[in-house]
Design goal:
globular
C-alpha cells in the first residue's frame, strides 16, 4: 500500500468535496494503524530499548508511562488512559 502524505489527503478532500457535496463521504483512511489501550511492561524488562532511543514520557500523579518513539513512528497515534482521563500520544 502506498503511503499518502498530508498534502495529498487535503487535496483529495477538496476535490472530492467539490465533486460530491450532496453525497455522504467516507472518512479518509489514516496511513497508519493507531494503538488503543496499550499494554505496558516494567522499565527493567524493556531490553529492546537502548540509551540513544527516544521516548515520550507522560507523568500524571504517581503514574509514569514511556511511549517509545520507534513504535509511535510506526503507528502514528496511541490512545491511552491516564488517571485524569483519556489521552492521545503522537510522534
Amino acid at each position: 500500500m502506498k503511503r499518502v502524505g498530508t498534502p495529498a489527503l487535503v487535496w483529495m478532500a477538496v476535490v472530492l468535496g467539490a465533486a460530491g457535496a450532496a453525497q455522504k463521504q467516507a472518512e479518509p483512511r489514516l496511513p497508519y494503524t493507531a494503538v488503543h489501550d496499550p499494554q505496558f511492561i516494567a522499565a527493567s524488562s524493556a531490553n529492546f530499548l537502548h540509551d540513544p532511543d527516544r521516548v515520550i514520557g507522560v507523568i500524571a500523579g504517581t503514574v509514569a508511562k514511556a511511549y517509545p518513539a520507534a513504535i509511535l513512528s510506526q503507528h502514528g497515534l496511541v490512545e491511552d488512559q491516564s488517571p485524569s482521563g483519556p489521552i492521545a500520544v503522537t510522534w
